[in-house]
Amino acid sequence: MLGQAAKDEIIRMNPCTITGAGVEHSDERPLLEPDQIQLLIDCMPERWQAMGLTAACCGLRHGELVGLRRRDINLLKGELTVDKPIAELDDGRLVAKAPKTRAGKRTVTIPKALAEVLEAHLAELGEPGPGGYVFVGPLGGMPRRSNFPTMWQRACPDAGLPGTHFHDLRHASGTMAAQLGATAREIQSRLGHASPAAAHRYQHAAQSRDRALADLLGEVMSKGSIA
């Protein structure tokens, strides 16, 4: 209402405007290499390994992963749809809500290897029925932000990667996509970003990695051992 009032020049400016509020910000995190990701997943309990691999391959957020239902995964087409992520409220309730932005609701293509893992997971560990949740605990409970990190924090030291965040799998997914040549628009669509700013961050990380590779190639050539 205030924004419209400012446009109509009823008031001089919208007092609720916050500079930079429309831009996504996050601290730069260390980039996980594919072998490190696999080691982390191997150190997770079997029940949660498919969830970790989906985060790394598709770049889904924790709530988006928890909210996946059987009907959201099409193994024949090799796709999954992010429809209603699970949000954990301050009072502890878990509710399925529409994504915060239109970009958050999306369909993501999944690699063949992940499709095979998800097929095996659904056959043994997923809830039954089209509306059944894909990732649930042994008693049918959903992984919460209050208990899931406990398991994750045990897996990280076992993998030799203490201090790694589960969200780093999403970060690695975006960066690897950039390294493989994905455009900012493609990354934005795949990860569900509302603005291209975050997607550009992944491309910058890929460019930094390319510089490191170029320097290593230069060292090899200078030593005359390119063969």
Q: What oligomeric assembly is this protein in? A: single chain
Unreliable segments (pLDDT under 50, ≥5 consecutive)? none
What is the rounded Rg? Answer: 20 Å
Average pLDDT works out at 85
Lateral strand order in the biggest sheet: 1-2-5
Task: Count the E strands.
Answer: 5
The general outline is globular
The major β-sheet equals:
3 strands, antiparallel
- The percent range for strand residues is 5-15%
Write the H/E string, N to C: HHHHEEEEEHHHHH
Q: Based on helices, strands and strand pairing, what is the structural class?
A: mainly alpha
Helix content: 40-55%
Distance between the terminal alpha carbons, to the nearest Å? 67 Å
Number of helices: 9
Note down, in words, how this protein is organized.
The protein is mainly α and 227 residues long. It is 47% helix and 7% strand. It has helices at 2-7, 34-43, 46-58, 62-66, 112-124, 148-158, 167-179, 184-191, 196-222, and strands at 73-74, 79-82, 86-88, 94-96, 106-109. The strands form two sheets. It has a three-stranded antiparallel β-sheet. It has a two-stranded antiparallel ribbon with strand order 3-4. Helix 3 crosses helix 7. The chain is globular.
